Every structure is written in C-alpha cells, then in structure tokens.
Amino acid sequence: MHTTHFRDMQHLHRAKIVALFFVAFLMATNAFAQGQNKPFYDYGRKLHFGFTVGTSISNFKYDWSPKWYTQDTISTVNIRRLPGITLGAVGDFHMGEYWDIRLVPSLVLSQRNLEYKFNNGDIVTKQVESAIVEMPVLLKLKSERHQNIRMYLIAGGKYGYDLGSDYRAIKNPNDIKVAIKPNNYSYEIGTGLDLYFPYFKFSPEIKLTKGLTNILVPDDKPYTNIFSRFRSNFVFFSLYFEG
After folding, report:
1. Total structural domains in the chain?
2. What is the rounded CA–CA span in Å between residue 48 and residue 51?
3. C or N terminus of the chain, fewer CB within 10 Å?
C-alpha cells in the first residue's frame, strides 16, 4: 500500500514538473512572437517586486557513523523523496546592466521518508516533514536581451528555519522519530529565462541548493545513531512573476 501511494505521488510530481515546463514553453513562444515589450524595464525603476510558485525535490546527503559498521540489524537505508511546494515573494534590485541582487523570502514544504530495511526482512519508514522559512540572497548575472528574452545565471546563499522541526519535542518510545535541527545554511546555483510581457516579466528557473550545516539531532536510537551527519539538498523548479 505504501509503495503504491509513493508511486502515485511520484507520478503526480512528474506531472507538476511537466506542467511547469509546458507553461514556461508556451510563454516563451508567446514572448518570441510579440514585439519588444517593456523596453526600459531594466533601465527604469531600480527595484521590482513579484511572487514565485514552484515545486521541489528534496534529499538528505548523509554520512555513516561508526555505529553503522558495528550493528547487524539494518541492512540498507533508502531515502524516498516526495514532491514539495514553494511559495514566496521577490524583491529584485537592479545594480547594473547585467547584474541584480535578488531577495526571495519563501515558504518551502517538503517531506523525505527514510526507509530502513532490516536483515529479517522488515521495513520501517520514518517520515521527516519540513515547513522551512527561507531567506535567499542571490546574485543574478544576465545576458544581453534578445527581443523579449534574456538568459541568466544565479548564485548565492540562504538561511532557513524549519518550523516543522521537532528537535525539542518530548520523545515517545512507541513512536521513535528522526529529528532535524531548525537552523540551516545553504548555497544555491541555478539558471533561468526572463520573458518580457506587456504588463509583467515571467521567469522560469531551475536551481540547486546544497546544505552546509549538519542538521541531524543526535540520538542513541538505532534509526539515528547509524548516521553522523545530515545535510539537506534541494532541486527547485520555480516560476517568477514580477511587475
């Protein structure tokens, strides 16, 4: 039953990603077909605001602890990645013809399932759910504008606070959890397209986030003590709308 549900979620997530890229493709095609829109967009106001929506794939990069090599009950651990949702605001500061500074305060909802397979054949799944408030500060490097399209690269760092972290929760011996710390620092790199329309600018973007902080809460329980470190990684597929 769990496997069927997970596969259904995977198919739904793929459909969301395909839909995002389809919307981006249609809007890019439309931008090509039009005359030049907002010709002074990047030379007028220094500050533009907007919003972003998107989806994500999240994962843990982990390191084994010495306990992993001495225990003889767990044979493998797999991380099942479920689709996430991102909602945020955008503040874009034009610092020059080819570069901006972008602030994107966002709420990221994600879930990762840790699937433990025991030597006796049992499988136990531990869910790690997150509701992360993020504040990325990004440098955006832009190409020359061609008609209504401009490519860009983006890179920077961000701080995130996980509202879903239960690291201070009272432990229930009948429901052992894998807990993560709320504070996290990451760096981000990505690429996208600025598409200029008569009343707004639309930007599809793909971005990779690599965590720098060990967010694993130490515990002597077997679901946790086999790890020495968790770092959080994301791939984001986002659509930006700026006025």
Report:
1. 1
2. 10
3. N
Q: What is the pLDDT along the chain (243 residues), one digit of tens a residue?
A: 444 444 444 445 555 555 655 555 555 555 555 567 877 788 778 899 999 999 999 999 999 999 999 998 999 999 988 889 999 999 999 988 899 999 999 999 999 999 999 999 899 999 999 999 999 999 999 999 888 999 999 999 999 999 988 877 767 777 788 999 999 999 999 999 999 988 889 999 999 999 999 999 998 888 999 999 999 999 999 999 998
**CATH number (domain holding residue 71):** 2.40.160.20
Cα–Cα distance, 25 to 202 (Å, whole number)? 11
Which residues on neighbouring strands pair with residue 161, listed in sequence order? 133, 183
Contacts of 205 (CB under 8 A, 6+ apart): 154, 190, 191, 192, 193, 236, 237, 238, 239, 240
Q: Residue 33 is part of which domain span?
A: 2-242
- Tokens 């651990």 -> residue: 77
